[in-house]
Amino acid sequence: MKFPDLSMSNPVRLRDLIRQIRSAKTAAEERAVVQKECAYIRDAFRDEDNTWRCRNVAKLLYVSLLGYPAHFGQLECLKLIASTRFTDKRIGYLGAMLLLDERQDIHVLITNSLKNDLNHSNQYIAGLALCTLGSICSPEMSRDLGGEVEKLTKSSNPFIKKKAVLCAVRIIRKVPEQFDIFQNSVRSLLSEKNHGVLLAAITLISEMCEQNQQALQIFRKVLVPNLVRILKNLIMSGYSPEHDVSGISDPFLQVRLLRLMRILGRNDIEASEVMNDILAQVSTNTENSKNVGNAILYETVLTIMDIKSESGLRVLAVNILGRFLLNTDKNIRYVALNTLLHVVQADHSAVQRHRATVVDCLKDADVSIKRRAMELCFALINSNNIRTMINEMLTFLATCEQEFKADCTSNMFLAMDRFAPSKRWHVDQMIKVLTTAGNSVRDDIVSSLIGIISSSPDLHGYTAQQLFKMIRNDITQQPLVQVASWTLGEFGDLCVNGQYERAEDEENIQFTEEEIVNRLEKILNWSISTVVTREYAINALMKLSTRFPTCSDQIQSMMTVYACNMNLELQTRAVEYTSLFTKHNQIRSSIVERMPVLVNNQTSTTNNEEQTYEQEESSLASKPNFQTTSDVKQEPVADLLKILDEPSTTHTSHELYTHDNIFDVLSSPIEQPILSSNPIDDIFGNNLLNNQTTSSNGINSSIPQMTAIDKNGLRIIFQFERKDKNLFIYLQATNSAKIPITNFVFKAAVPKTFNLELLPPTGTTIPSNNSGDVRQTIKILNPNKEKLRMRIKLNYSFNDSTPISDEAELNAFPEQCYH
């Protein structure tokens, strides 16, 4: 007798399908099992098999959770939702939440079923409908069913009421305008005794305040006293086994209340005053021996710091964070450091009291804590503690991981640049930083330190002596060697001659010219030195060829050797420098003069200066309405290694020719006619001879000239002449671009203690290729002999094209301009 095949009539149960999938040894076996079962489920759906629809949808949902496509079961979910059986509705609503979302049009088909089930007498069916609506509702469904949900928020059943309020949160998130529907019912919810409903109500109010500004204003006036009362009852209530967590009454509700109070009290003095007392009670009465209490204290601190709280309360909040720093739990310490980093600007003095504890966190083994502690230490530095904190950070720099060193050195430089008590201390500490950090120093720190050394004339010899002591026995630290090479090249003669002020306890060590030259030669020849370091060294040696005449032959022989070097940059420089020793020896001393003070241009974006500025414009220049602005960025220190590669500038129409760079000049035939009386000006232009006593304007002045702007081919040079309290600045603007600059307008502003006068310029068009210039005279009266600061603005365009506007602030004028 043959029995019928029942494999298709009795589908596999869900637990059997799970067992089969889990027993698959490979991904291919798993896919085969899933595909076979999905094929059967499709056939069952196609045959309208109502008997096993619930089981098939349940299996399909499990398959969907594994990542396989299950979209073909969406309509079956709608059929189950329409069923009268609870078991079918349960699977149908679960399938709707997993397989449908608001981006699919099919989801609106269940709107009518949801409306019917929301009003169902069975609380569990109504609960299913509320959960589904809260999960997948769209703005359209929110508007259609918002009224039904609002009715359920007034239900006497806490189970239904809680789910209805949570569903209202989703509706408000989708349609903030629905605030009007739930506004009145929200107030009554705060009088609920059920903590579940109360927690949901607080969540709904928070969502309303964040989504709707009108709701925030209304709730500030009417709800703050109620929230304070609820929080006070929680604190003062006795032990309740239903809500107690580690000895604290319902910490989840307390946290939600504190967050809502933070929203309502932000930027509102009246609401904040009402909250002050209860926040003080929470801060003092909450036990901090367990994480539950620490979580409440943390939220309390955030609330205190975010609202308009009293100063004493803010100090209490910072002290709580200070206690967190002493906790053994790493997570609590990290949270404390992170929070202190955000509140340090709000109450700097209160955070300063915990500076020692923060510094101790630098020794923590956890890298996250160590990084936050480092950032907070730099935020705490001011003019009063700069010496102590820099010593602490130097200790940290010596022992920290490699990943911290670059950030630490950069932040130390910024802090010292802002709060250094003296230039000498600043230089000493930066040398220590370079020595401690090794090769982890960023390039911008090297160039910035060179700028500081350049702008401190009284420390030139001292700095050269200190740096040479550092590299005398160790040249492995490349950033330190680069700064030392530049300084020795510029001021090595001051170091040898002893023309500097020694420290009281410093040992009197005398260096010879040969020692310095030999050390630079070793740096140049050492295979471990980077190309940049060797470029600094070869430049320094060339500078010293005139400062140390006895070593000139040794330096010349080194240049001859490096004229055949494999590195193109080193070879080019060596060839140029060799030519200076031979063909152009008569101008070598002028070429390698000391560099002028390096200018640090700062971008002027907002008028936040304490002093007001007077501004004058050229009377002959037009004032076009510019629409495009190109702000001058803070320029890095000029590339010192390429000083001799600058294009030559033709200053007058009497010069017959120009050259692109020094290499071309030195390679040109000697018989080429030179009509200018000064051969240096003809060959190199005035760009390389910034320290010439006679400028191209014919001004005899000991004040070095200064480059104010060098961007987009436009170069503006200031030359100075001082007569008693009057300073004359002779502006020279040249254009190295291939397109002429037109509509050139120069504007300047100085502090109100100065008197500025701009004389008319020689023109508004600057010819291309350095074939001409525009000149203008600036007259400044400085009766108090104060340090000069100037803000400049340039308006111009290239060949009448898009207008350009550049702004910059100049603070590094030579001291001779005002002393």
UniProtKB/TrEMBL annotation:
<dbReference type="InterPro" id="IPR011989">
    <property type="entry name" value="ARM-like"/>
</dbReference>
<protein>
    <recommendedName>
        <fullName>AP-1 complex subunit gamma</fullName>
    </recommendedName>
</protein>
<dbReference type="InterPro" id="IPR016024">
    <property type="entry name" value="ARM-type_fold"/>
</dbReference>
<keyword id="KW-0813">Transport</keyword>
<dbReference type="InterPro" id="IPR008153">
    <property type="entry name" value="GAE_dom"/>
</dbReference>
<dbReference type="GO" id="GO:0016192">
    <property type="term" value="P:vesicle-mediated transport"/>
</dbReference>
<dbReference type="InterPro" id="IPR050840">
    <property type="entry name" value="Adaptor_Complx_Large_Subunit"/>
</dbReference>
<dbReference type="Pfam" id="PF02883">
    <property type="entry name" value="Alpha_adaptinC2"/>
</dbReference>
<dbReference type="InterPro" id="IPR013041">
    <property type="entry name" value="Clathrin_app_Ig-like_sf"/>
</dbReference>
<comment type="similarity">
    <text>Belongs to the adaptor complexes large subunit family.</text>
</comment>
<keyword id="KW-0472">Membrane</keyword>
<feature type="region of interest" description="Disordered">
    <location>
        <begin position="602"/>
        <end position="623"/>
    </location>
</feature>
<dbReference type="InterPro" id="IPR017107">
    <property type="entry name" value="AP1_complex_gsu"/>
</dbReference>
<feature type="domain" description="GAE">
    <location>
        <begin position="701"/>
        <end position="814"/>
    </location>
</feature>
<dbReference type="InterPro" id="IPR008152">
    <property type="entry name" value="Clathrin_a/b/g-adaptin_app_Ig"/>
</dbReference>
<dbReference type="Pfam" id="PF01602">
    <property type="entry name" value="Adaptin_N"/>
</dbReference>
<dbReference type="GO" id="GO:0030121">
    <property type="term" value="C:AP-1 adaptor complex"/>
</dbReference>
<keyword id="KW-0968">Cytoplasmic vesicle</keyword>
<dbReference type="InterPro" id="IPR002553">
    <property type="entry name" value="Clathrin/coatomer_adapt-like_N"/>
</dbReference>
<keyword id="KW-0653">Protein transport</keyword>
<keyword id="KW-0333">Golgi apparatus</keyword>
<dbReference type="GO" id="GO:0006886">
    <property type="term" value="P:intracellular protein transport"/>
</dbReference>
